[in-house]
Every structure is written in C-alpha cells, then in structure tokens.
Amino acid sequence: MLLWKSDGCKTCKGRCKxxxxxxxxxxxxxxxxxxxxxxxxxxxxxxxxxxxxxxxSVPIVIVHGAGSFGHPQAKKHHIQQNPDTEGLVKTxxxxxxxxxxFVETLQEEGVAAIGVHPLNCLLAKRGIVKQWxxxxxxxxxxxxxxxxxxxxxxxxxxxxxxxxSGDRILTYLAKTLDVAVIGAGTVVDGVLDKNEKTIPHxxxxxxxxxxxxxxxxxxxxxxxxxxxxxxELLKLAESGIESVIFNANLNNMVxxxxxxxxxxxxxISGAE
Length: 272
Ligand code: IPE
Known about the structure:
Its EC number is 2.7.4.26. It catalyses: isopentenyl phosphate + ATP = isopentenyl diphosphate + ADP. Belongs to the isopentenyl phosphate kinase family. Helix 2 packs across helix 4 and helix 7 runs parallel beside helix 9. It is built from ten helices and twelve strands. The longest helix has 24 residues. The chain is of the alpha/beta class. 3-methylbut-3-enyl trihydrogen diphosphate binds next to helix 1, helix 3, helix 4, strand 7 and helix 7.
C-alpha cells in the first residue's frame, strides 16, 4: 500500500513548472547533527540524506531543524526570555553554518538546492509566523529549485527577537503552499507508545488516548520536542493536510517516504 501518492511525473525531478504539488520535508536537527556535542555535524547522515533526496522524483521543499547548531546558543543567550544582539548573531550564525553545509552537500549530489534564511525574510509574532512572502519559494520550486529553509532566530513584533522552529515554518508553508504531503524525518520510527511501538495513525479523535506517551522538550531543545511537533501536525490534519513522521536515521527511509512507499511511521490525518 502506498503511504501517499504523487500526482506528478516520475522523470523530470520537479522541473515540470508547477504542475506537481511539492512534498514538504522536514529533517530534524537531531538527524543532521550530534545533539550531544555543540556545533557537531552528523556528516554521514547529511551525505546519505542528500543522496536520497537527489534520487527522488518529486519537487521538494526542505525545512530543517537546528540540533546542536542553534539550540545550545539560543539557550545560553536566553533568547526566549531576554534576547540580545549577541544571542541573535551567535544563534543565527550557528544555524546558517548547518544550512550551508546541508545545501552544499545537496548540490554536490546534484540537487539544485538553495538556502532560504527566515531571519532575512520573515516577521514573527510571539514565535509564530506573522508575515512571509512565500511566492518566491513557490516560484523557485516551479523553476526546479529545492529551497532549503531552517529553524532560525527572527525579528518578532512583540519580543524583538524570537526563535522560530522548523515545525512552525512547516505549518506556515503547508498552509500557504499547495503541498502533496508533509514528511517529518526524526530519529525514531514515528510516535512511539509506552512499549516503544510505533503508533501507526494519529487523528484528532484518538489524540487524547495517545497524548500521555508523547514527550515534550528535553535537554537543550528550546522548541517543544515530539509533543510540539504532533500538535502542529494535528492542526494541519484538521484542515486536510496529511503528514507522516518517520525515522530519517535509517537508510533509505527518506527516499522511500518521498516515493510514497509504506515505511514504519506514524501517519497524522484528519479522519479515521
Ligand atoms: C530551532 O529549530 C531553531 C533554533 C534553535 C534557532 P528546530 O526546533 O526546528 O530544531 P530541531 O529540529 O528541534 O533541532
């Protein structure tokens, strides 16, 4: 059984000028970095995932998290409580470094990847996107480009500066771009129950039953962990946009997800 089905051609790698809905793919910071060691890449995963994305034949918009490039700096400089210019500069520099390495690796694998930096183009209100002209992203995708956007520190109309997570960016893009499906690549096989088994399907009606197992932020994570992610994706499911949480730490999972193959994962949708 297919996990989801693209309405597009299999050969043009997204260059079919806007006729095929893009897949919105989030890769968590813990997949791309070693979360235990500040500013440490997981180059093996970055290279492997870039290769899997290069092999896929759907247009893709990528969003990635910060992992050890961003969370430790945001925490150290109390960005959430008392933001200052030093914290802004250091946190942005860290996420930018991760984005640059990921984008360059994608390019080396043959993907026309371009980094898009929220600090330069997005206005937030209390950590939620308030204003962002995503037409540029739409047109880049139509042109055959794979935009690579990241969690970032951004200008905030109330707080001066705030952290915007990859999941918040995902929510906004899902609502404003017409996407086929959302994929969230994490370091676990989806959302796990109390016996560490994957919960195959979460809907607004069964969320209450599974809610207790889903953990929030741990360690240096400043943006909400798995619980935050599921809550964001459930809101989207209610407006008809489906998503899949899967394990991007394992070989071929990103490629299989992008191909619509059934993989061990949690699907989040509006209906049973
Ligand atoms: C956080 O982004 C951005 C900053 C801390 C600046 P995410 O919240 O999306 O990062 P991960 O995926 O949890 O690492």
